[in-house]
Design goal:
Length: 195
């Protein structure tokens, strides 16, 4: 009986799980990277890229962009797709860029691009619906970058600096036609973990 009452009392005092509205989140800031940091870095990069004119195609058509490697040089285990997906979505919605999933540093992002083409000359499939040769579009541009972390001791606190560095390369010339760096700087107690 005592154990049941103690368990009830402890559960009544426990913090309950709740949803957080990203647009109105004024909760505590972590020293590590969180969704707000990726949102800020992606928004900054997209606004800078669109205002630079680098993706204004003189022909009026959309550029085709491939996503190259985004290197994680932080002490955290993060998925860099969290950054690139936000950028891709915003660029697609801008009407200026589409992203190919048929080409990538480690092979096609969407393996179905190749698998669907392996159906050619397979008697089990109606060939009128099979993708024909020469229909995939090659990329015009490549997005690459790096996320860097630097830790410093500042008086009685620690400062953690994150730098989101991005480059957009014209694949025809090999020249970087746009580059951006978004710093995210956080300062907090020394006992806060930054990895």
């Amino acid at each position: 009986m005592v154990a049941a009452v103690a368990s009830l009392m402890l559960s009544a005092c426990a913090t309950h799980t709740r949803y957080v509205d990203p647009a109105a989140d004024d909760g505590p800031v972590a020293m590590t990277l969180d969704y707000r940091d990726f949102e800020r870095a992606a928004d900054n990069a997209v606004q800078d890229l669109l205002s630079s004119g680098a993706v204004d195609n003189p022909s009026g058509e959309r550029y085709i962009m491939a996503v190259s490697r985004i290197t994680n040089d932080t002490m955290q285990r993060i998925d860099t797709d969290q950054l690139t997906k936000k950028i891709r979505v915003a660029l697609l919605r801008s009407g200026k860029v589409v992203t190919t999933t048929a080409v990538g540093v480690d092979g096609a992002e969407d393996q179905m691009n190749q698998q669907a083409r392996e159906l050619r000359n397979n008697d089990e499939f109606d060939q009128s619906g099979v993708q024909q040769k020469g229909t995939l579009k090659a990329p015009d541009l490549s997005l690459s970058g790096k996320i860097i972390q630097r830790n410093h001791k500042v008086e009685d606190e620690q400062q953690v600096e994150y730098y989101f560095q991005l480059s957009l390369t014209d694949l025809k010339s090999g020249l970087a036609i746009w580059e951006n760096e978004t710093p995210i700087i956080k300062r907090g107690p020394n006992d806060t973990v930054a990895w």
